[in-house]
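Progress note, sequence design subtask.
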């Protein structure tokens, strides 16, 4: 099995993915994997990808989720020491598929500064989700890394934690 590194928007998941890949670690950003992440309806049916315009209706009626079938393929590709970095509303359905959970933890001020360029509706939802998601990760036994640190430091800590 692989490792799941998750954190709220602004935690640095995409930047950390690039740094890990540069260091030779098998790492994937869940948002960049074709067919893995998408907006879904309550039944789990895909309604669109990240190119959908952000509207109150989109955020109220749909959620950002992962395809179970595609996730299995991705985990096979990553292998036992691969790292998937990302966040999805339904990620809790899949935590048993990972050897270890790691939370990229950050505070409200840091998150606010890092997501300033996002759509205002996104920013509202992102801010509301910060304490909830972090608490859920901690409840599930996630190791915590301070995501306010420079990317290289976060990568060093993650590699040491996971033995990569």
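Output:
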């Amino acid at each position: 099995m692989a490792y799941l590194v998750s954190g709220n928007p602004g935690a640095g998941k995409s930047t950390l993915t690039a740094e890990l890949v540069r260091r030779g670690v098998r790492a994937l950003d869940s948002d960049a994997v074709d067919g893995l992440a998408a907006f879904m309806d309550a039944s789990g049916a895909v309604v669109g990808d990240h190119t959908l315009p952000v509207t109150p209706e989109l955020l109220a009626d749909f959620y950002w989720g992962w395809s179970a079938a595609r996730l299995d393929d991705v985990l096979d590709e990553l292998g036992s020491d691969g790292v998937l970095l990302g966040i999805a509303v339904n990620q809790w359905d899949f935590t048993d598929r990972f050897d270890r959970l790691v939370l990229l933890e950050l505070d409200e001020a840091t998150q606010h500064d890092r997501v300033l360029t996002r759509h205002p509706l996104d920013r509202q939802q992102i801010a509301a989700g910060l304490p909830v998601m972090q608490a859920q990760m901690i409840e599930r036994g996630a190791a915590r890394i301070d995501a306010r640190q420079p990317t290289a430091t976060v990568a060093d800590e993650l590699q040491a934690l996971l033995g990569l």
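Residues 2-162 form a domain with the Rossmann fold fold (CATH 3.40.50.300). Work on this subtask will continue into the next period as scheduled.
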